[in-house]
Design brief:
The complex is a heterodimer of chains A (154) and B (379). Chain A has 2 helices and 10 strands, in the order E-E-E-E-E-H-E-H-E-E-E-E. Chain A is an alpha+beta fold and 154 residues long. Chain A has one domain: 60s Ribosomal Protein L30, Chain: A, CATH 3.30.1330.200. Chain A is globular, with a radius of gyration of 14 Å. The chains are: A alpha+beta (154), B alpha+beta (379).
Chain lengths: 154, 379
């Protein structure tokens, strides 16, 4: 089953589901998995850090990752055995607003993963084009698709 | 004229909560993960309401009564209808069942802060669209629509879920909500969309010589994380501008082409002119479109609005809007988007999404006032 992950959303799986999300501009996709338990989760976050309690934690990298990791542990993942891959955070448009939110999202994801003792195995971030991402929790493969470009797997 | 946009934003948040509940109910019923991808409070030109609702062959209407009175129009795409029927195995009754639980999930959010309840009637196949349009909450030629889109995993089948309250009921609901919101003042915002879209239509026709036809225009109030879903993930060619002046804004001018290069061909005599020339042609067309839009605003406010040099894009529509939404995301929970769709010849559709800065969004009311004054002077 292909499971859709929306913007400001996360999904976890412990089967052969493929978690997919699209329309990543300056947003980031954080894929986390426990290879031994075949439990994985994919977060699509829009902004770096929540400023206090928020209605939708998945909108932010830090609170979204916290929430998703808890759901993965409930599904059987071991907190000491998690690894991650990261994609997104592009700077597609030359806008005077937003203060480089793509790069700040990437930095926030790296920081949040380090704080949670999750090793970052691979990342494909920045650049000036959008991405769609598919994540297989069983293989750990993150497949990245772009308009007018070859598919890339990390 | 200033409208309390926080009150409008609260409707969008309530709608989003309802859309999430509806998606959760659908997921429980079918066992298939379901996501609410788009929620918006939308002002639609009453004449364009039918076009806005679309022409899906699978449409169901569910009437409701109580704290809010009106009807929901659910439009299922073929993929969604097939998937639901396959999962539930209930033949044609499956869609009615889905319409029922989606509507329940959605309207519960609207009744949550009210001692009253909202009762829903059995779903019926939509047979009389004219009646639906006639009964919609129309104030001064502007219809109020609350829309969510729920997507099923596996196939990406989509259900558009449009709530159209009855006008009297909606006026009462707004009054009971104890806001300072004036519906006639809010309704006037539709003038900004329709006049700007007409400006673009005439500019594009003059520039390209192609037949330019305005398909529809509307104003959305959207939770910021739902903005990317205003466009699909198809590749769009286009130009992004920023404006400065009395209204700071970002304009995304995005062309959906039947064939790559179709936009450039509208301006270039030599189709083999090269990518640099093609990008330049797209930027020029974007410039004309942006001017068509903002000139109307500047005239209404009797001032000038400067626009930046464009950023060229060729990317997924959702990814482009994602970037704009994230740029505004730390300053606002809900953003206003003025939209226009114009067909340009047979092969190109131009989508204009204009995002006034959240701090300047209430200037749209002043623009609407100015446009009304211009219209009365012309008549």
């Amino acid at each position: 089953m292909t499971v859709r992950v929306g913007v400001a959303d996360w999904r976890v799986a412990d089967d052969d589901s493929l978690l997919v999300t699209s329309g990543l501009g300056s947003c980031v996709a954080v894929a986390v998995y426990d290879a031994d338990e075949s439990v994985g989760g994919l977060l699509h976050a829009m902004l770096p850090e929540a400023d206090g309690p928020v209605d939708n934690p998945a909108k932010y990298v830090d609170s979204g990752l916290d929430e998703m990791l808890s759901a993965m542990v409930r599904l059987g993942a071991s907190p000491g055995n998690l690894t991650a891959k990261l994609a997104g955070g592009s700077a597609m448009l030359d806008l005077s607003i937003g203060d480089g939110v793509g790069a700040r999202n990437v930095a926030a994801a790296e920081r949040a993963l380090a704080d949670a003792d999750v090793d970052l195995l691979a990342s494909e971030t920045g650049g000036d084009s959008g991405r769609s991402v598919s994540f297989s929790p069983t293989s750990g493969d993150v497949t990245i698709d772009r308009v007018d470009a070859e598919v890339h797997v990390i | 004229m200033r409208v309390d946009l926080d009150a409008v934003a609260s409707f969008s948040r309530t709608g989003d909560e309802g859309g999430q509940r509806a998606a959760n109910s659908l997921e429980t019923l079918t066992g298939v993960p379901a996501t609410c991808e788009l929620t918006r409070t939308t002002l639609v030109d009453a004449d364009g309401l039918s076009a806005f609702l679309g022409d899906s062959s699978e449409r169901v209407v569910v009437e409701f009564d109580g704290a809010l009175v009106g009807r929901a129009v659910l439009s299922f795409d073929e993929t969604f209808a097939d998937q639901v029927t396959g999962e539930l195995g209930a033949g044609t009754g499956a869609l009615s069942e889905v319409a029922n639980i989606l509507t329940s999930g959605f309207v519960d959010a609207w009744a949550a802060d009210d001692e009253d309840t909202i009762d829903i009637r059995p779903p019926e196949r939509l047979a009389d669209e004219e009646r639906v349009v006639r009964d919609a909450a129309v104030v001064e030629d502007c219809a109020f629509v609350f829309e969510s889109q729920v997507v099923l995993s596996g196939t990406r089948g989509t259900c558009r879920f449009a709530v159209l309250p009855d006008v009297e009921s909606f006026v009462d609901y707004v009054t009971d909500a104890d806001t300072e919101l004036s519906l006639p003042d809010l309704a006037a915002h539709i003038r900004v969309a329709s006049v700007s879209a007409s400006g673009v239509e005439s500019h594009l026709a003059a520039m390209t010589g192609a037949d330019a036809e305005l398909v529809e225009s509307h104003v959305d109030f959207v939770p910021v994380e739902r903005v990317p879903s205003l466009l699909d993930d198809a590749a769009y060619e286009g130009a992004i501008f920023e404006s400065e002046g009395v209204v700071d804004s970002v304009l995304a001018i995005l062309f959906d082409e039947d064939e790559p290069g179709a936009v450039a061909e509208l301006l270039l005599e030599d189709p083999e002119a090269g990518s640099e020339m093609a990008e330049s042609a797209v930027a020029e067309l974007g410039n004309v479109t942006a001017s068509g839009f903002l000139d109307e605003w500047a005239n209404a406010l009797e001032t000038t609005i400067d626009i930046s040099t464009p950023s060229h894009v060729r990317d997924a529509g959702g990814a482009v809007l994602d970037t704009v939404a994230a740029a505004y995301g730390e300053r606002a929970e809900t953003v206003t988007v003025v939209n226009a769709t114009i067909e340009l010849g047979d092969d190109v559709v131009c989508r204009v999404c204009t995002f006034p800065s959240p701090e300047d969004a209430d200037r749209l009311g002043d623009i609407a006032d100015g446009l009304a004054d211009e219209a009365s002077e012309d008549s």
